Amino acid sequence: MGKAKYEALFETKKAKGRILYRLFATSLLCGIILIWSYRLYNIPKPGENGRLGWIGMFGAELWFGFYWLLTQSLRWNRTHRHTFRDRLLQRYENELPRVDVFVCTADPAIEPPIMVINTVLSVMSYNYPPQKLSVYLSDDAGSVITFYALLEASRFSKHWLPYCKKFNVEPRSPAAYFTSLSMSDQSDADFSEIKRLYDDMANRIEGVCRAGVIPDKAILEHTGFSKWDSYSSKGNHASILQVLSDSRDEETKDVDGVILPTLVYLAREKRPQHFHNFKAGAMNALIRVSSEISNGPIILNVDCDMYSNNSNSIQDTLCFFMDEEKSHEIAFVQFPQSFENTTKNELYGSLRVIDGVEFHGMDGNGGPLYTGTGCFHRRDTLCGREFSKDARIDLKSARPGKMEENVHELEERLEILASCTYEENTQWGNEIGLKYGCPVEDVLTGLTIQCKGWKSVYYKPERKGFLGVTATTLDQTLVQHKRWSEGDLMILFSKYSPVWYGLGKLNPGLLLGYLTYCLWSPNCVATLYYSIVPSLYLLKGISLFPQVSSKWFLPFAYVIIAELICSSAEFLWSGGTILGWWNELRMWLYKRTSSYIFAFLDVMLKLFGSSNSTFIVTPKVSDEDVLLRYKQEKMEFGNASPMLTILSTLAMLNLFCLVGLVKELIITREVGLKYAFDTMALQILLCGFLVLINLPLYNGLFFRQDKGKIPSSTVMRIGSSEVWILIALLVVAWSSRGALGIRFVIDREECFSHKVEMGETVHFSFVVIKSEGSWHYSEEGVDLVVKGPSGEQIHDFRDKISEKTEFVAHHEGVYRFCFTNKSPYHETIDFDLHAAHFVYHDEHAKDEHFKPLFEHIGKLEEALYNIQFEQHWLEAQTDRQAIVNEGMSKRAVYKALFESSALICVSILQVFLLKHLFERKLGQSRV
Ligand SMILES: O=c1ccn([C@@H]2O[C@H](COP(=O)(O)OP(=O)(O)O[C@H]3O[C@H](CO)[C@@H](O)[C@H](O)[C@H]3O)[C@@H](O)[C@H]2O)c(=O)[nH]1
Ligand SMILES: [Mn+2]
Q1: 352 has pLDDT over 60
Q2: Cis geometry, peptide bond prior to residue 112 (ω within 30 degrees of 0)
């Protein structure tokens, strides 16, 4: 064998179509550069409309372009791996290394023990010599019920493992196996027997979970339960170590007389005064304890919900670790994170593109991240070993021999390794083991391993290696992504930042790849900007994109269409559906405008020394009705949360803007339809896209009645106070184009007509801004006569420089406003008129609860219009003052300034008063 032609244990192939992709990416880059140039060369001059907005757009597009460039590092160099198991077995069948499997669990309430032991059983039954396999369960809750379940599992394994071997079962998680079968598969006697054993066990475990106590009979059968005598709570208990079966023992055999793998339960010590470092702390305790029991040179780490779906994964992995020529540089082999409970169109997004595209790209540059589960490590590299050319894996590392001590003595001795104080004054969590201080301990640990010169491997076999449980509500997904994006950004600012620590140590492409993930959360700024500002400018009628007829339109159109096609192709290519891609887009937006904002802010706060990150464990169970809605792909908004408030507010803002635009286009016909599309097509599309993608959210806000809708407290929060005032104020203030009033020059006489409905309140005002020839200044005013539809006189003002008043129209019809100028000069007059009757119809809301809300919003809108009217009048006055004061004393200028600030104060005060008024009223009307 040795002298014969060397046959590699694995091969690495470059992905197909790379040249084509690179050409495409280059063309996209040209488009992006053109967009940047367009922005740069067309910045509005100071004083021109939309200058600030434009500069912001430029900033956002610079960011998006830069970020897009980073993501190219994940696509440029994709590779795929393939293993040759038969060669491995041929050469090494009798020299296979020991493998230790670490399973982590943290909370029996949201990670049910029955799920945990299914994972444990699946990894115990790998297609691998059992005397070389050890399984360790770390229980961060120290739950006696989880221990009980594990005990049951160790008994069941005596039947399950031979059954798996005999029938070559796949997958080897019993629960998953049973549900994967159809009725016709379930006939033979062996099957009925194993199924009965499993069901009995499951019933016992579920019974104990429900009751919350262990039956006396079980306690009598196993001395291990006595270790819970001193247990006081999840966060306060001594180390509990139990070796349930030890493959060194001749007695631990299955029903066919074959040795069973080693099975160990560990609950490390927890004390309130000692920080436990979440999963990283648990893993490090396992590394130490296992080193004294089995000391396998290979460690597989899985989360408790990730069962093994492929019994050959260990053999596959060993192909990477045992190849004679290429293995010496490989530190870990990462499998993709796939999920068992996904629905067809993945409402809450997926890791599809990361798994199907990006990690292959990382692999081409030196290897993927360590993502915490489904990952095989070399024990020595996980413990901090530096890279050296001859660092081949030591397959013959000695297994700690069976000492003279009995199992109780062994447990007692090793429990010290899992105590709170063991790590004090050591390099654990720093130079040794998984790194502490980061919510994504996995990514950080993988990064530092790669910085030491090691490579990693991404292996995505045909049959998935592991299947886990993904979040089933919007809230859970957002919380999880907050943790991930926060952790990734923390890495960027940490001592181990890919930028300053990784520079020179990592392959540049890999460094950029890490940056892509580290910079997830800062994306929130540009995305927020893009989902607010263009919509607001749309209402204001200011275009922020090139006209359709302009040549600059082309790069925009190209980049948008090409990106959409590319992202959908990648998604479909990775096995998704078109609707799934649309859902992914929505989640892309939601993550960036909620999880990432909070993550970003938290990291910023942390940089300045406050705030602490926690690890919120993702629940793996849900109520029946939640599960049903999940399967129907109905968005589950769940509990009220600040993230949900932000998402709803943004959705409402865009709806407001779109409705405002439609109103203007169709009802008031102020701007022509064609003109609007010519000048603002992209802005309209963007706003329309945002509304379209938010449809499930509007549905949850207004129409849905089930428990998964947006909770009424969030609706109220959005409806009642700050947020609405903010939206309304923004929208009204923005949509005003100062065009409410008219400025005209009057020679002798000038009349205006306005059609008014009965009962409407007509506000009007005028200011004589200036007389012809600025050197001339007269105190002479103008006359204004207001007449009703039948000629009756309503107001008669004589010699006024300015006036502001209102009346209620008692008749429907045309009202006339006639100005007369008696002075010999032309005068410029600012005239403002505004008639309104605010009624809020039921059509706005089907729900009775919303009626009062909309009435208040109506009143608020009216009030805001009045403020605006007032503002206009004051502005006109200020203009007049400014002109009057030209060349006169500066005092008057100050007065104008003073007036302006007074105006602002008055506006704020009004808003404040209104808000309080409504809050009280809403308080009364709330049901
Ligand atoms: O104090 C803790 C907290 C969590 N866990 C375990 O860590 C795993 C991951 O927790 P989960 O809530 O499922 O987080 P996910 O976001 O799904 O996990 C991904 O992201 C984590 C980092 O944020 C990694 O640790 C995980 O391995 C990776 O699968 C679970 O098995 C938990 O039981 C502990 O053991 N102790
Ligand atoms: Mn998980």
Answers
A1: yes
A2: no
Burial call 167-206: b when 16+ CB within 10 Å, e when fewer:
eebbbbbbbbbbeeeeeeeeeeeeeeebeebbeebbeebe
Model confidence at 899: pLDDT above 60: no
**Whole-number mean pLDDT of the chain?**
87
CA–CA gap between residue 858 and residue 851 (Å, rounded): 11
Residue 134 CB less than 6 A away from ligand 1? no
Pairing relationship of beta strands 802-808 and 761-771 according to DSSP bridges: antiparallel
Q: Distance from the CA of 348 to the center of ligand 2, in angstroms?
A: 14
For ligand 1, atom 13, which residue shows the shortest CA distance?
618
Question: Nearest-CA neighbor of 556 among 32, 23, 25?
Answer: 32
User: Is the pLDDT at 306 greater than 80, yes or no?
Assistant: yes
Fold annotation for 87-470: Spore Coat Polysaccharide Biosynthesis Protein SpsA; Chain A (3.90.550)
* pTM confidence score: 0.80
Sheet with 802-808, edge to edge strand ranges: 741-746, 827-836, 761-771, 802-808
140 lines ligand 1 (CB under 6 A): yes
For the domain bounded by 742-878, which CATH number is listed?
Answer: 2.60.120.380
Residues 859-883: pLDDT tens digits?
A: 656 666 666 677 777 777 777 766 6
Report which residue type is found at 318.
Answer: L
- Section 476-483 average pLDDT: 96
Q: What is the separation, in whole angstroms, between the first and last Cα of the chain?
A: 82
- pLDDT, tens digit, 9 for 90 and up, residues 650-669: 999 999 899 888 887 877 66
Query: 230 phi and psi, to 5 degrees?
Result: -100, 5
Under DSSP, the state recorded for 110 is T
The reply to whether 188 sits in an annotated binding site is no
Taking Cα atoms as reference points, which of 849, 851, 852 lies closest to residue 927? Answer: 849
Ligand nearest to the CA of 340: 2
Question: Would you state the pLDDT for residue 545?
Answer: 95
Q: C-alpha 782: how far from its chain's center? A: 62
Starting at the edge strand found earlier in the chain, the sheet holding 455-458 runs 240-245, 262-267, 133-139, 99-105, 298-303, 375-378, 330-334, 455-458
Task: Please give the positions annotated as active site.
Answer: 140, 442
Is residue 140 a known part of a binding site? yes
pLDDT digits (tens, 9 = 90+) for 750-795: 888 888 888 888 888 888 876 654 444 556 788 899 998 888 888 8
**pLDDT of residue 649 exceeding 50:** yes
DSSP letter at 356?
Answer: I
Residue nearest atom 31 in ligand 1 by C-alpha distance:
303
In the predicted structure, residue 84 carries a pLDDT above the cut 70: yes
Q: Which helix (H) or strand (E) holds 197?
A: helix 189-211
Cα–Cα distance for residue pair 55/39, rounded to 1 Å: 8
- Cα angle 319, 324, 325 (rounded to 5 degrees) comes to 105
Q: How far is CA 714 from the centre of its chain?
A: 19
Q: Residue 554's CB: how many other CB atoms inside 10 A?
A: 12
**Quick one: residue 453, left, alpha or beta (phi over 0 = left, psi -120 to 50 = alpha)?**
left
Domain residues of the chain, as ranges?
Answer: 23-74+516-609+633-733, 87-470, 742-878
What separation in Å is there between the alpha carbon of 107 and the centre of ligand 1?
A: 11
Compute the distance between CA of residue 552 and CA of residue 760 in angstroms, rounded to an integer.
Answer: 47
Compute the distance from residue 307 Cα to the ligand 2 centre, in Å. Answer: 12
279 annotated binding-site participant: yes
Confirm whether residue 303 is marked as ligand binding.
yes
373 alpha carbon – ligand 2 mean position (Å): 9
Determine whether the shortest distance from the Cβ of 444 to ligand 1 is under 6 A: no
282, 268 in Cβ contact below 8 A? yes
What residue type is assigned to position 689 of the chain? Answer: F
The closest residue, in CA terms, to atom 34 on ligand 1 is 279
> Which residues are in the CB-under-5-Å shell of ion ligand 2?
303, 618
**Tell me, what's the ipTM?**
0.99
